[in-house]
Design a protein that fits this description.
four-stranded parallel sheet; transmembrane helix; Sulfotransferase domain-containing protein; membrane
């Protein structure tokens, strides 16, 4: 009897298991059918559009959190303003008092958290040690950047003895200096891009190409440390690195958008947002070139224009519409309708 009771209990338990398994299979099959019907109700183009706004490289919050960014401070392109909102920028200041003042006013931002190092001019960072994932460039049209440098060191803009303009004014007294030869040939920016003699043209090309030794001509540092110089020491060393860009012409818009894109709030504080930090360039107006001289300047700086265009094209944080508009504006600034037209016209100018 005891054996029969156990057998009946075993059969009942087995029956319950089979029934439960049947209902589980039925339930999950119905759930799967329901999911497919819901998924098919969304049009494919809607799914594609929902992903189209994501940047091409790093797209998720977790991946963004793992970034290690080096700020590449391109001279005469609003880099001092950016430097002031980054902890790495504050720490790069050599004077202790300026460093402490910068840190005291430093706003909290996601951008500042992720920027671990600072690169300006010839203090090249040790990339193998830092292992950056990304490089942040501040960019400006190469001709505008060059004109800013010209005004920056022009002897007529000497106001305070420690400024580059006053150093240039002092060097003018010595005929053996490059500064004397440069301003003897080019008292105006127009003459710099339209040199009248072969002697002056050779001097002009040294600045255009950045082919000087900065230890011998420190006042030309921002022309020597050009876009090609910065790319050679960053992207060419680590070609798989992400490129981030902020434009001088839309500086605060780009900084706020970049901070938000990195997972921050996009806010830097009322006392900081919209401000500009300069080395005195606010005290004078940069030279303005006419159409002919502007075209000549673009041809003189054509290699730099190409690097500038490539940086914009590869910027992970800029959308395609912005890139296209910047590319069009850059070439129209030179008086051409397309890059092909500019290259062809410059080739004709160089061969004449």
């Amino acid at each position: 009897m005891e054996c029969e009771k156990r057998k009946r209990k075993y059969c009942v338990a087995l029956y319950i298991r089979y029934v439960a398994a049947f209902f589980l299979v039925f339930f999950f099959s119905r759930l799967l059918q329901l999911w497919h019907s819901v998924e098919s109700s969304f049009p494919n183009d809607l799914i594609i559009q929902s992903l189209s706004h994501l940047p091409p490289n790093i797209t998720t919050h977790n991946e963004k959190a793992e970034r290690n960014i080096i700020f590449v401070h391109v001279g005469k392109a609003a880099g001092e303003t950016i430097k002031n909102i980054l902890k790495a920028g504050c720490l790069a200041r050599t004077a202790r008092r300026r460093q402490e003042k910068c840190l005291a006013r430093l706003p909290d931002s996601r951008l500042s958290e992720l920027v671990s190092a600072y690169f300006h001019c010839f203090d090249v960072p040790r990339l193998k040690k830092l292992k950056p994932t990304s490089f942040l460039f501040n960019v400006r049209h190469p001709v505008d950047r060059a004109l800013s440098w010209y005004g920056y060191i022009h002897p007529d803009h000497c106001k305070h003895m420690a400024t580059p303009a006053c150093k240039a004014k002092w060097q003018l007294k010595n005929e053996d200096t490059w500064v004397h030869r440069f301003f003897d040939c080019f008292p105006t920016a127009e003459e710099w891009f339209l040199p009248k003699t072969s002697h002056c043209r050779a001097i002009a090309q040294q600045a255009w190409k950045g082919s000087l030794d900065y230890r011998e001509v420190p006042l030309a540092a921002h022309m020597i440390a050009n876009y090609q110089h910065y790319v050679n020491n960053t992207i060419h060393v680590l070609p798989d690195s992400e490129i981030l860009v902020v434009r001088t012409t839309d500086l605060w818009h780009d900084l706020k958008a970049l901070d938000e894109w990195l997972g921050g709030t996009g806010r830097f504080g009322r006392g900081i947002e919209g401000t500009a930090v300069t080395h005195g360039s606010h005290r004078y107006a940069n030279p303005v070139l006419n159409g002919t001289t502007m075209f000549a300047a673009c041809c003189a700086l054509l290699p730099e224009l190409s690097v500038y265009r490539d940086l914009l094209a590869k910027a992970a944080n800029l959308d395609q519409i912005t890139k296209d508009l910047e590319r069009e504006d850059a070439v129209k600034h030179c008086g051409s309708e397309s890059w092909e037209e500019l290259w062809e016209s410059c080739s004709q100018l160089h061969s004449s």
